[in-house]
Design a protein that fits this description.
By secondary structure, the chain is mainly beta. Helices cover 12% and strands 46% of the residues.
Amino acid sequence: MKNNIMGIMALSVLFLSTPCPVNAACARSDISGTWRAFIVTGSTSFQGFARASLIFSEIGKLDAANSTFANSISPAIKFAKGSIKADTSCRVTAKLLTKAGVTLSIVDGQMNASKDVVAGVYRTSSKDAGLINLIR
């Protein structure tokens, strides 16, 4: 498990350090659809790893009723609301509020040129931080 986490972290750092090609302009609508999220942290509250299924509308609004979040402690955390956006340089930010009252924010994400992967850094309102990958 530790090797998997280290591998994911290494790939995320490599991806974040690679600039998005100039011809790969992004729009908010590029983020719409269903994404699988993989979250890696050193926090004991997440036990090092969490996953989610996130569904966003064309305007970036989270479909909270059909999106899920799970970690080894809480296998079925629900979202209250959320939103995500991508700017023209394919930088991604998001704010997702769980029904437990914790906000997870993607503070710096980068979408790849194929627009099917986002690698980024997140933080939560409970002072946790780590890496997050969204994959279509």
